[in-house]
Amino acid sequence: MSAEEGFIAFEGSPTQAVYNPLGVVHGGYAATLLDTVMGCAVHSCIKVGERYTTLELNIAYHRALTAASGPVRAEGRVVSVGKRAAFAEGKLVDKDGRLCASATTTCLVYSANDGG
Known about the structure:
By secondary structure, the chain is mainly beta. The protein is built from one helix and six strands; from the N terminus they run E-E-H-E-E-E-E. The protein has one helix at residues 27-43, and strands at residues 2-4, 7-12, 50-61, 72-81, 85-93, 99-111. Strands 1-2-4-5-6-3 form a six-stranded antiparallel sheet, with helices on one face. It is elongated and about 45 Å long. The two termini are 29 Å apart.
C-alpha cells in the first residue's frame, strides 16, 4: 500500500471465488477496488470534521481479470476538492502493468454535523 495526500494505492488478488458465470472476475470486483481507492484518496484531502460519499462512479473495463492477473494494483488520485464536491480518477493494473480498468468519481463533501 502507498499513501500520500491525494494519492492512494493498494493491491488485491482476485480468485475464482469472485468469477462470474463467464469464467472471469466479476466487474464488481474492479468497481469495488476502484471506488475504495478513489474514496480513500479523497478522504486524504478533506478537512477534519468533513465526510464524503460517492455520488457518481464511472468505470471502463479494458481487460478481463482472472486469478492469473493478480496481484492487481489499484491507484486513486484526487483531481480536485471543493467545498461540496471532490473529483478523483483511478486505474487498475494487472501484475504485468497492463491497464485492466479505469474510473472517475464525483464525491459529495459535507460536514459531519450535517448528519449522514
